[in-house]
Design a protein that fits this description.
Layout lengths: L15 H17 L9 H11 L8 H17 L2 H15 L25
Helix pairs in contact: 1-4, 2-3
């Protein structure tokens, strides 16, 4: 039996770009949360500065690695309950809600009959 808590970066979104967008939104929400340590908020800010001024290190892959590592560490070091709260809100806001018809009078029950083109 596996009692290991789920990884915070695991997403149920079907798609790479949707997952990246979810991570960006999550980081943005965590940056604005007062329950997150202000020193932790320096990680995404440092990653953003590195994105703007990438000449701090040599090579094309290190840019993605530094930004990915900064965002990963930021999310992992934030309090679990705060991350889960924001992740649930993001998932709920991204889901489309079906329309619930509460008034039975708005439903029209009828038969469909196709007319001939000659008539």
């Amino acid at each position: 039996m596996n009692n290991k808590p789920p990884n915070k970066l695991t997403s149920s979104n079907p798609g790479f770009f949707q997952d990246i967008l979810l991570q960006i939104k999550l980081i943005y929400r965590l940056m604005g949360d007062k329950r997150v340590n202000p020193f932790l908020k320096l990680l995404p800010i440092g990653g953003l500065i590195y994105f703007i001024v990438p000449d701090l290190a040599i090579g094309p892959l290190d840019d993605a690695a530094v930004i990915g590592l900064a965002s990963y560490l930021f999310i992992e070091l934030c309090p679990d309950n705060v991350v889960q709260e924001h992740r649930q809100k993001l998932r709920l806001s991204s889901q489309t809600q079906p329309v619930d018809i509460k008034d039975d009078d708005t439903v029209i029950d009828a038969e469909f009959k196709e007319k001939d083109k000659e008539e």
